Amino acid sequence: MTLSKISIACWTFFVIMSVAFLPAGAGLFHALHALPPTPRLVLVILVVGTLWWGPFGYAMYLSLAGMRNGDRRLLKRGSRGTAVVLSGKATRTVIQEGEFAWEAPRVWKYRLRVSIPGRAPYETDCSICIPSLPTGSVVNVAASRLNHRRVTIDVGQDRKGVARATRPVPGANSAATAVPASTVHFTSGPIPAGQAGEAQRMSLLDQLGRLHSQGILTDSEFTAEKAQILGE
What we know:
Elements lengths: L2 H31 L3 H32 L3 H6 L1 E16 L11 E10 L6 E7 L9 E6 L7 E3 L20 H4 L17 H19 L5 H12 L2
Antiparallel strand pairs: 1-2, 1-4, 2-3, 4-5
Helix pairs in contact: 1-2, 5-6
């Protein structure tokens, strides 16, 4: 489950508890007075604190810590890897933190193809207040160990006093990754024989290998493009 879906679930549960609490409030009030002080306190904390206002507090935490600032806890405790930006769009949501609504940063929703060591590449969404990440670019990410579809993009959340920006991925070739995975095509026909053709073939195979290792190309796409380059 992604961060935005968890946040929606929290807000939904909070609204349901708020509506249900109105008609049940009077009966609960009389029932509490019939209980001894200790069980009464435990029940109040459980119902009011945990079941009612707990989802509200967690939803606010997800909005401020997860979407606006990027999840620092996930960056420290999650599984590190990289991701290819498949698409991105600005939402209508802004996350306020003291400023006016028109000054607050807007949430962008990115579709990512995530590559975590020891796990097959997979796609998921990430909502964060970082605008205009180029489609096809490679970014550093951290994924939850229990919920791998929950990811945060590394924009320097752990560095105080530094402007937010994605960190460069070692070995990532900006020229090779600046295009969507679905539009990567290396050849339109057979490569001519000879020294020049062999050099071109080796260059294309080198680019192909880098894109495959970065998760931009799937195994099947890699195999198909390799066969086309080699003329098999």
